[in-house]
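note to self: dont lose this again. the chain is below, predicted strucutre after it. 559 aa total, dont forget to put it in the shared folder this time
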Amino acid sequence: MERRFDCGRETEEVFERGLQSIPLSMDLWIHYISYLQSTLDMNLPESIPKIRGVFEAAVAAAGMDFRSDKLWELYVEWEREQGDLRAVTGIYDRVLSMPTQLYNHHWEKFKEHVLRHPPKDILSPEELLWVQSKLATDPVPKPPEPEGAEAPPGEDPPPGVEGKAAAADAQEDLDQEKIRELVISMRQQIYAQNEAEVSKRWNFEDGIKRPYFHVKPLERAQLRNWRDYLDYEMAAGSHERTIVLFERCVIACALYEEFWIKYTKYLENHTVTGARSVFQRACGYHLPRKPNIHLLWAAFEEKQGNLDEARRILRCFEEVVPGLAMVRLRRVSLERRQGNLEEAEALLLEAMRANEGLPLASFYAVKLARQACKVQKNLGKARKVLVDALEKDPDNARLHANLLEMEFGADVRQNEGNTMSCFERALRSPLPDEAKLLFSQRRVEFLEDFGSSIHSLLTAYDEHQKILKQHAARKRAPENGSEEPDDKRLRPDEASALLGPLNFSSSGGDLGSNPSAYSYWYQPGRAPAASGPAPPSPPSWHHHHLLHLPAARTHARVT
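---
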C-alpha cells in the first residue's frame, strides 16, 4: 500500500519492521533487496554500499537456514554484476562451509568461477601471494621445447625471441592452472566436511513438511522430528545454528508451548536477555492464555531478582484467565518466599471469597490453614479457618481430614479433646457412609494408641461395630435393587485422602483391611464375629494426596 502511493521512506520502514519481526523470512529479504535495486539510483555513491549492507544483514540473519540457498545465489549474482570477482570468491568461501540444501550446487558454481577467471582477478592479493609462494617451494618442470618446428615463410621472429616468448606463455598458463588446482584443492576439504554435516541433518530436514505457520495442528511425526532435530543441534551444533533452528521451529510450532519452553531453557544458560525476549514473544503474542509458560516466566524473573516484574506477570495473567488455582498459589508462594505473609494470606482469603460456594473455596481454605499452622505456627488460627470452612461445606471429606491431621500433629496428650472433636464432627456430618466408616476406624485406632480413657475406647469400638454392620447391610442392598445414590458415595480420591495421615497405629495395622482387628481384647478367646463383607483394602497412600487436589481439578478453570 505504501509503495502504491509512492511513499518510499514509509515502504522501507514497513520492510524493516517486518524483517525485525521475521528475520528468517527469505521471501521478505529478497523482496526488500529487489525493491532497493529497482528504486535506488545506482549512480549515487551510497547506493551500492546500502544494497551490500542489506545483503550482509540478510545472510547474517538467515544465511544459516537450511533453505537459504536462493539468498546466497542472489548475493553472488549481484556482486558479479558489480564486477567484483574477489567479493564473489569471499561469498563462496562462506557458503561452502554452510550446511544448506543446495550445498553441491554452490560447490560446482565455485569451481566454474575459479576456472573461468584469472586467479589475480578472483583472489585477494594476500591469498594470491600465499599460493604463489606455495607453488615456488614445489617448482613445476618447464615443458620441453618442440624440436624441428619451423615458422612459416616471412614470419621468422628475431633470433632467440620466439622460443623465449612461447616458453613464457606456456609457463604462465601452467602456473595459472596450478594456482587454480591449488585454490580448489584447498577448499575441497571444507566442502567434504560440509557434506558430512549436511548428511547428518538431511533426514531431519526431510521430516519438516510444514516449515510455515498454520493454525491447523501438526502431525505427531513432525512434532517428534522437531524435538529430535533440536536435541541433535543442541548437542552437536554451534550456538548460532541452534538459535536459527529454534527460530525456525517456533514459526511452524508457534502454538505449541513445549517448544517455547525448550527455547527459553536453552537460552537461560547462555543469555538472560535473550531468554527474556523469548518469554516476552511467547507470552505476549503467541501463548497469551497458556499458564505454564507464564509461570516459568515469573519464576525466571524472580530468580533474576525482578520481583515486581514476576508479580506483574502473574497478576496480569490471572486477569486474562481468572480462576486458575495454580496461578493463585504461585502468587501466594512468591509472597511467602519474600516474607510477606500478610499479603500471602490476603491472596488466599480473596480466592476463598471469589469461589464461595464452590469446591475451590475449601481447597484454598486448606491451603490457608496449612500456612497458618506450618509457617505461622498458629494452630488456633488454622483450626478456625477449617472450622469456618466446614460450616459452609460440611460434607467435604478433605476438610475433615486436614483438620484432623493438624490436631493430631500437635501434642496428643494435651490435644486429645480437640482431636476427638474432629472425629465427632466428621461422624455427625453428612459425609458418605464410606467416609464415616474410615473416620470411625481411625477413632478406634487413635484411642487405642493414644487415648487416656478405656471407657472412651470401649464406647468408640461399640459405635464402630454398629457403623460397620450398617455399612455391610447397605453393601447387600444393591442385590435387592436399592442401590445407594451416587452423590452419597465416597469418591476414590476422597477415600485416599482419609487414610495415610490418619493411620495412627505404630504397628502398621490397618483397620480397613481387618475391621475387627481390635476385638482381641474385647471378646477374649473368641474369633472375631463376621458382620458382613469387610470393606475393601484402602488404596496405597502418598502424603501429597492430602495436600493437593488432583491436577485436573487444581488446574481447571472454575466457571
